[in-house]
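Inverse folding, one chain.
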């Protein structure tokens, strides 16, 4: 895996799957402005030496080029907005999933960022062998996507994670809430390796919604 650091987010690129295994960014109330920038074309990521997948892989497949870091979260800066259109920041998403449950979750995250002043967000698809692929470069199609949200409340880290099937769903968001422990077990990625053991034990082993409003 290759860690790529852009000016406004960073990601870990999986050449094997031709997409990021995760992308992470900081979302604050100051970033929630809604400048109406012209939507750019998708292009390959210049920081990936092996080249990120070309957007042509998605053509006529029925799958959307689904953002991991949402363009709508980066409207505070034209540079930040354009960075989200690198193909390293997209993955094949079912169109009804992308426009439906995934979009609802992204909107809820913006609501939480405004309510709590700031969030740290990690997003990715569940990548493994034998996934369906699209295009000449065989871009993997994740069966599930996840989001991990972290915020600070009274000097304590508060987390919630979501694991959502890459398909249409009208279910309430809380049905997809899970623990970061489960996300780590599925992905094999130690997201909490830099968090102290005491805090890690508290946030990994407990699943609680009381600090988060789903209304």
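Residues assigned per position:
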């Amino acid at each position: 895996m290759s860690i790529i650091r852009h000016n406004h987010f960073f990601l870990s690129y999986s050449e094997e799957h031709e997409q990021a295994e995760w992308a992470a960014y900081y979302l604050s109330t100051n970033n929630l402005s809604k400048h109406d920038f012209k939507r750019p074309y998708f292009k390959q990521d210049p920081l990936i030496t092996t080249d990120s997948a070309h957007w042509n892989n998605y053509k006529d497949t029925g799958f959307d080029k689904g953002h991991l870091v949402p363009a709508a979260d980066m409207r505070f800066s034209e540079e930040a907005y354009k960075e989200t259109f690198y193909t390293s920041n997209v993955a094949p998403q079912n169109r009804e999933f992308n426009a439906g449950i995934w979009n609802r979750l992204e909107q809820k995250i913006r609501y939480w960022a405004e309510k709590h002043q700031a969030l740290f967000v990690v997003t990715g698809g569940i990548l493994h062998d034998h996934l369906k692929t699209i295009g000449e470069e065989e871009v993997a199609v994740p069966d599930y996507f996840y989001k991990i949200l972290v915020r600070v409340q009274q000097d304590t880290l508060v987390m919630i994670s979501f694991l959502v099937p890459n398909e249409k769903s009208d279910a309430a968001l809380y049905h997809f809430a899970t623990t970061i422990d489960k996300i780590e077990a599925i992905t094999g990625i130690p997201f909490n390796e830099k968090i102290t053991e005491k805090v890690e034990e508290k946030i990994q082993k407990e699943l609680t919604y009381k600090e988060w409003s789903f209304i």
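DSSP finds five helices and eleven strands in the chain. The CA atoms of residues 107 and 127 lie 24 Å apart.
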